[in-house]
Write a structure and sequence with these properties.
Elements lengths: L1 E7 L18 H17 L5 E4 L3 H11 L8 E3 L8 H9 L7 E6 L3 H10 L10 E6 L12 E6 L4
Parallel strand pairs: 1-4, 2-3, 2-4
Antiparallel strand pairs: 1-5, 5-6
Helix pairs in contact: 1-2, 3-4
Length: 158
């Protein structure tokens, strides 16, 4: 069994003249992102790999969440996560190494909500800072529409 955690970035600001990819977290996002990390520390025994969007708000969300963990897992940025469709996100996880048991994606809507529905059939809202914990049978390469089960959906707040 594999565990996939979907994390929608924390609340972002909309500074005038700032490119969408450079939008930082808002004050609320800076409060909520550490709460995400505390929830992960309390509920997820280990995370083997984190892949996040290169957008500043996603990077900042993960940095603040990871600071709350006993040990921060390896993390990398993947351009495909910015504006990703559900099909694109499926392709990303299908590339995960076989030794990865638990992975976390930090991304954006509507792609994350669509991906949650694609994997589990559940139609749920992923608000900013929301986490969806999904279990998948078999290998990452075998991940397919409808194969996942939504185990937990939460929105930690700071």
């Amino acid at each position: 069994m594999r565990t996939l955690i979907l994390l929608r970035h924390a609340k972002s600001a909309w500074p005038a003249g700032t490119a969408d990819t450079r939008r930082p977290l808002a004050a609320r996002g800076r409060r909520d992102a550490p709460a995400v990390g505390r929830w992960l520390r309390a509920h997820i025994p280990a995370i083997d790999q984190v892949v996040h969007s290169p957008a500043l708000r996603a990077v900042q969300t993960w940095d603040l969440a990871a600071a709350q963990l006993a040990t921060a897992p390896p993390a990398c940025s993947d351009e495909r996560l910015y504006g990703a469709s559900a099909a694109c996100l499926l392709a990303v996880i299908q590339e995960f190494a076989p030794e990865i048991s638990t992975a976390l994606l930090v991304g954006h809507n509507p792609g994350l909500e669509d991906f949650l529905t694609l994997l589990t059939g559940a139609t749920e809202s992923l608000k900013t800072s929301s986490l969806a914990v999904i279990t998948l049978p078999g290998s990452w390469a075998d991940a397919a529409p409808g194969a996942g089960r939504l185990e937990n959906l939460t929105t930690p707040r700071g």
